[in-house]
Amino acid sequence: MNKIITSAIMVIALSAGAHAGGFERSDQSVAVLFKEGRYLEFAVRAGFPEVDGVATATSPTPGVESGNIAENFVDFYAAFKFDINERFSAAIVYDEPFATDIAYPTSGYFLSGANAELKIRELAGVLQYNLPSSMAVFGGGLSVYGGPRLSYTIANAEIPTSNGYSIDTDNQFGFGFLGGVAWERPELGMRVALTYNSEIKNDLDSTETLANGTVVNGETALDTPQSLTLEFQTGLNPKTLLFGSVRWVEWGDFTIKPPLFSSAAGNPPLAFFPDDTITYRLGLGRRLTEDFSIFGDVSYEPESGGQTGNLTPRDGFLSFGVGGTYDFEKVSVTLGARYALLGDADTVPAPGGPNVAQFRDNSAFFVGARLGFDLN
After folding, report:
1. What's the predicted TM-score (pTM) here?
2. What does the domain layout of the chain look like in residue ranges?
């Protein structure tokens, strides 16, 4: 059963949130906490999105195509889990959960040459306490866990067609926390874990400029949203595992409003999202031999139906992931891939504004690789 459980965890970490709401690239899973003893893992995730749209009649360039605006990317992940004693265990997790790389090709499109880069790297320390067996529920053990999160934010953007506008920010650290509770029966491959990640507030020192020489130094708020994730798994038989998750993220309150950009353009945000998102995932893992397991899953995020900004032109998705894990004694190697159909989106310059572009029939492809080391 353990090999099947490993496979289920791998598919989540390799490509779970690389296409989810807002600019998520990871679902911030703490599944590594449930590995036995000491365990070390490294992973790399690569994305190849294809996102293009057409300007509408209410835009400055009706009928002009944007070209592919989404850049390819590579993200990294690492985690180390260890036991302190019979009751306490801990993990250190490095992830890159939020990022976006948008670049509009040089063309006749009304956002020609516009680009935006946002990268948020995060280091979390998690302490887990396993409650005494006398407090078991339905034959399963309970544990609680939590700890601090340290984030590092890099952000800049250029919109040449808006009076030569650009913004550069100083890289900044931010602080938050996570907490959760889990129930598990390892002998049956059963586990349910509920994890909360807090909002992390950032007031970035920013420099905004216009083509006419105007320069404004100030602060730009960029707060990553809070989230709640329910992860579950259960063994269907000795060789098959059912797994899944439900994740809520408070994207509806997210905005980026640099002072100069907002004042010069009538107080709109530079970036925003219309609604909170809920992402669903369901999958199966199957052990084919003592050393080799395969897995597959389906993920779905409903379209909100609201208008989106020009730096995030998609709304919901449907994706399919597959992969396999091979164990070499105390080392495991996992490869995974995912294909996502991105939801159609209508973009606006500001919430409630006119529809200036339509993005239809877009997609993304993701691959990942992971090495796991049993250090017991």
Report:
1. 0.93
2. 2-374
